[in-house]
Specification:
Low-confidence stretches of chain A: none
Low-confidence stretches of chain B: none
Strand order of the largest sheet of chain A: 6-7-5-8-4-3-10-1-11
Order of helices and strands of chain A: HHEEHEEHHEHEEEHEEHEHHHHHHH
Strand order of the largest sheet of chain B: 6-7-8-3-9-10
Shape of chain B: globular
Number of helices of chain B: 7
Strand content of chain B: 25-35%
Distance between the termini of chain A: 33 Å
Distance between the termini of chain B: 26 Å
Number of domains of chain A: 2
Helix content of chain B: 25-40%
Mean pLDDT of chain B: 90
Largest sheet of chain A: 9 strands, mixed
Oligomer: heterodimer
């Protein structure tokens, strides 16, 4: 600690350079935190995804007749099939986007892990316009049980020609990590009966739960085969695959995230290494003076490492802090219930950031430190 | 009583490109404890080389260098650094202060290498600054002080750890006559009142006159100069 004023004074010798370096490190670590945090989210999705569930939807897009769900449910090994669709829209202004998932009564059986009690599910069964709103969404839109909420949905036209969907908040329910922006669950029957006749009796997708998780892929193939030549060919996706963002998007997004984070680290490495090398070069005679008055090689090298470590660690801490704030703010701008991934600031993200900051500091300081170790004091003092 | 500094048959060569230049040719020198020695001579005659060897900043090619009873040629780099911190105070021509530290911060630097408490370090810094007459400038940075004041800070830094030997390389080379005389008087005071052994390299005969013994380097050899009353 007694060396801290010396190290700090060295860093702040050129305040502009110090502040710009700190800002650069901070921004690089913000990017690092968001990308690695995103990977943590993907990993969590994968971890939470169950082997015994799958999504089934129209292979070539569009809606699927509800009747097909009953056929799927009668297939051997299938435990239950739920229907779900959605009403996308906004509250008052288009910028206030929301996304209401319309669930039938079987969703509770397919997704028993949802933190919704049977009594709460029953509330939206009893009232067709009933809606379950997660706490974060209730806070955001200042909703409480009993409130009425009208959503404008230009893409979900109703039978009466209007595009306004009115819901009654039946209960405020706990948030869940899979819906980082919160969720709104409505009654599928309300949507089905209110929309255009041509769309009635149809759903966006089925959620299928099988009895034996080891048979999920086999059953998935059976479903696809069975409806391959029907008027609505179906496609199925196991939950594990559906939540594997890399498989879904056709590219290894986790690797892309890592590459982006790595690029940021390299950028900050070059910046700090160059800045430190310049700082040491400018103060070579001063380091020679320190050695003259008794600082050992290791002592001087430790000062240089500390000089590199302080902006790196401080910048990393600020950057990860900013990433945490940003990841908390992101959900405000995303419609709820879609399961859009937002970065998770897990402990591992902080650990990786700390390790990366230490590594950047170490590599940045390595060459200047080596130069100082090899310094000939007499020559350096003479300014040659 | 053994001498403070003893150089025996010291040979030192420098390489300049492919050429080897012998700067010291079997040099012998003894400086008793408490002596104030000035070392004069033309540029390149080896004056600073002697200071560097005595200060453990450079190694001789052969010969013995015994300072404060320690054979420096037998010490490793790390051991020399530790030894320097306790035995030698360096005073430079261009002060070599850390511009970002206050006068007190600069003076405190050698004490950072000790196990002294913060309060004890502060106390010693105050004493050192008081000796050089700069107690009221403790918070000032080098850039806010005159050359003479900066050199006083340099002297305070050199004496704060109470080393028995001070090595001064052209301590007044960058100062005007009046300021130089003040600095030289201060060095005399340190020699007489605080019993410091001082070796001062200088080009200035008037500066050399402040020493109790004057030596002149000529082609790698030392010549004793006749003393003029200081």
């Amino acid at each position: 600690m007694k060396y801290l004023p010396l190290v700090w004074a060295s860093i702040m010798r050129k305040p502009t350079r110090a502040v710009l370096t700190l800002l650069s490190v901070m921004l690089a670590f913000t990017l690092f935190g968001l990308t690695i945090g995103m990977n943590a989210t993907f990993a969590k999705f994968q971890e939470d995804a169950r082997e015994d569930r799958m999504f089934v939807f129209a292979r070539f897009g569009g809606l699927v007749p509800i009747a097909l769900g009953r056929q799927i449910e009668s297939m051997p090994g299938v435990e239950v099939v739920a229907s779900s669709s959605f009403v996308p829209g906004y509250i008052h202004e288009p910028k206030n986007r929301v996304f209401v998932q319309m669930m039938d009564e079987k969703v509770a059986k397919v997704n028993p892990e949802y933190p919704i009690t049977p009594a709460q599910w029953q509330l939206i069964r009893n009232n067709r316009q009933g809606m379950l709103v997660s706490k974060s969404q209730a806070d955001r839109w200042h909703l409480k049980a009993g409130d009425t909420l009208t959503i404008a949905s230009p893409s979900a036209k109703k039978l009466d020609g209007s595009t306004s969907w009115t819901f009654k908040v039946a209960a405020v329910t706990p948030d869940m990590s899979i819906f980082g922006q919160g969720y709104m669950f409505g009654n599928y029957d309300y949507m089905d009966k209110a929309r255009l006749l041509s769309d009635q009796g149809k759903t966006g997708q089925f959620r299928v739960k099988v009895r034996d998780a080891s048979k999920t892929v086999e059953i998935s193939q059976q479903i696809e085969s069975r409806f391959a030549n029907s008027s609505t060919p179906l496609q199925s996706l196991t939950e594990k695959v559906a939540f594997d963002v890399s498989t879904n998007t056709g590219m290894d997004i986790a690797a892309v995230d890592r590459d982006v984070a790595l690029a940021g680290m390299f950028m900050v490495l070059f910046l700090t290494a160059n800045g430190l090398a310049q700082a040491v070069r400018e103060r070579f005679a001063e380091f020679a003076t320190l050695k003259t008055i008794g600082f050992s090689d290791n002592g001087v090298i430790a000062l240089v490492f500390a000089e590199a470590a302080i902006p790196c660690v401080l910048g990393a801490a600020l950057g990860i802090g900013l990433a945490a704030i940003v990841s908390n703010v992101i959900p405000r701008f995303l419609p709820p219930g879609q399961g859009l991934p937002i970065p998770t600031m897990s402990v591992m993200v902080f650990v990786w950031a700390a390790l990366s900051a230490a590594l950047v500091a170490f590599i940045s300081a390595a060459l200047p430190a080596l130069r100082l170790k090899q310094m000939d004091i007499a020559t350096a003092l003479s300014g040659r | 009583m053994s001498p403070a500094i003893s150089l025996r048959n010291v040979i030192k060569n420098y390489r300049r490109g492919k050429e080897s230049v012998e700067v010291l040719h079997g040099l012998n020198l003894e400086i008793p404890v408490g002596e104030f020695v000035s070392l004069m001579g033309p540029s390149g005659s080896g004056k600073t080389t002697i200071l560097n060897l005595v200060g453990g900043l450079d190694h001789a090619d052969s010969g013995e260098i015994i300072v404060g009873g320690e054979h420096l040629e037998k010490l490793s780099g790390g051991q020399l650094a530790k030894w320097r911190s306790g035995h030698i105070g360096f005073i430079f021509q261009f002060y070599n202060l850390m511009p970002m530290l206050s006068a007190a911060g600069n003076v405190e630097l050698p004490l950072l290498l000790t196990n002294l408490s913060k309060s004890e370090r502060r106390r010693r810094v105050e004493i050192a600054l008081e000796i050089v007459g700069l107690k009221d400038r403790a918070a000032h940075r080098p850039g806010e002080m005159s050359g003479g004041q900066q050199q006083r800070v340099g002297i305070a830094r050199a004496i704060v750890a109470d080393p028995p030997i001070l090595l001064c390389d052209e301590p007044t080379g960058d100062l005007d006559r009046a300021t130089a005389d003040e600095i030289l008087s201060l060095l005399q005071q340190l020699n007489r009142q605080h019993k410091k052994t001082i070796v001062m390299v200088t080009h200035d005969p008037k500066a050399a006159d402040h020493a109790s013994r004057q030596l002149e380097m000529d082609k790698g050899k030392l010549i004793e100069r006749a003393m003029v009353a200081a």
